[in-house]
Amino acid sequence: MGQEIQEASRRFGRELTRLREMSGITQGKLASQLGISSSHLSNLERGYRTPKAPVIRGLDKALNAEGRLVRLWEDLTRSGRSAWLEELADIERKAVSIVESQTSILPSVLQTEEYAKSVMTTLSPWATTEEIEASVQLRKKRTEWFTSSKTPIYWAVIDESVIAREVGCHDLMKAQLEHVADLTERGRVSLQIVRGQHPGLLGSFKIISPDGAPDVVYAESAHSGQIIDSPDDVRRFRLVYGAVQAAALSPQESKRLIMKTIEGYGA
User: Fold this and answer.
1) Comparing C-alpha atoms, which of 249, 262, 241 is closest to residue 160?
2) CB 137 within 8 A of CB 81
3) How many CB atoms are located within 10 Å of the residue 180 CB?
4) Which runs of consecutive H residues, i.e. helices, occur in the chain?
5) C-alpha–C-alpha distance, residues 37 and 244, integer Å
6) Tens of pLDDT along 58-81?
7) How far is Cα 247 from Cα 192, in angstroms, rounded to an integer?
8) How far apart are CA 121 and CA 46, in angstroms?
9) For residues 114 and 68, which has the higher predicted lDDT (pLDDT)?
10) Cross-strand bridge partners of residue 157
11) pTM higher than 0.70, yes or no?
């Protein structure tokens, strides 16, 4: 086992132990549910064994971790996450339009480098400084490509809490909102803000319409970056997006709200 995989296995094992103990499940009972030996589970928790994908999914389901263990292993090893991001970037480059619904943070293509770094550091406390920096630079390249291109057409609806929540320091958040305001002023993006209870609270997603190909959905909160291409599922996401957009403020009203929020940070 290489040094990087060893460290990833140890970190994974610590989180697995924490989640199991929080659930009040013994090693023996959990191992029995998964059909593995108690010694195997013990070795996983101590980082002596490298977890396999089926076991990770089984552990995640048994502990009601809602994808946390799956996301953790992929972030620690970059297995899967990099492939998903590369596939997503390729689909976006070929897209005619993208519509996105976000409930917790600003969409990635609208993020400044500082905002992205602050968010990733908070959401991936197990990641090293080098891992965070690599992810930030990858996102920065995608953002630079997007802002310098005329396509795809981009519409986003974000929950009001996204602009109300201060990420990092005052100056960081102010600069981030100014960047968003500039993109809307240039007509590069159409942004709407939705308040209160709305269908988009089910989770963040984007619907990508490639040139000459069927639409796909990228659901950030599902399985750590799942690309969905089932026509029926894509249709459902379309309905959800339409409902969220109908409940949102107009682009003009949304821009005024963003400017008001910027003013709240002072000169």
Assistant:
1) 249
2) no
3) 24
4) 3-23, 27-34, 38-45, 53-62, 68-77, 81-93, 113-123, 129-148, 160-164, 170-185, 231-247, 251-264
5) 47
6) 999 999 998 889 888 877 776 544
7) 10
8) 25
9) 114
10) 101, 192
11) no
